[in-house]
Amino acid sequence: MPELPEVETTCRGIRPHVENKSIREVIVRQPQLRWPISAEISRLLPGQRIKKVSRRGKYLLLNLAAGCVLIHLGMSGSLRIAKKSEEIKKHDHVDIILKNGDILRYHDPRRFGCMLWAGAQPLKHVLLEKLGPEPLSDDFNMNHLFTLSRKRSAAIKNFIMDSHIVVGVGNIYANEALFAAGIKPRRQAGKVSKASYIKLVASIKKILAEAIEQGGTTLRDFVGGDGKPGYFKQSLSVYGRGGENCLKCQTVLKEIRLGQRSTVYCPKCQS
Global pTM? Predict the structure, then answer.
């Protein structure tokens, strides 16, 4: 599924095309996503100007004078700029048509995403209000992780993937960050030292920043805001490489399941 870098890439990709642009019409072809599309989307958006496009965790926010639209890409969704001449595909569920003719098109084959009306205070929406800090912010640091981890028996990989602890560290980037920090994914979060948390925080920030810079990880169903795929996949060290040799020590990488997710690590480099 699209992770934080993919969502940030989408945010940056569509921003120059839609910010300060007025909406002419909204077409909803399929209202049944993970939750029904809010009725306010069709009713309130026409005539409104998109003041700002932002991101919180894996959610995209379209900020208008009347309130805010909250969008999640689910497992297979994408949000991109389309032209009127482009063919409408089977899973193009929502078109937000701008007055200049450009279309902000929501595509979601599995329909696990959402498009909800979040009102004037979106950060207080039930889906956002309890989220942890942004991983690239100053609020995400060693003290934050170390304090919350005490007496926690959860595997460190599951711990950093908990959006109440920190947002946006999905499966791909959790694998990569733990490898870079030299921490075995199954280690109990409460038994990870301060020194290791310093390395882990630095690794998460570095890997996510690099992924955003390179356009996100290329997933089968993901395309960037300009219609082009991201290119971070070529830089992955462990994710998707179970059974192959470690790029650092040549030890065969192990693949296990943690929290129903594929987890790959080096038994020599990570302890």
Answer: 0.89
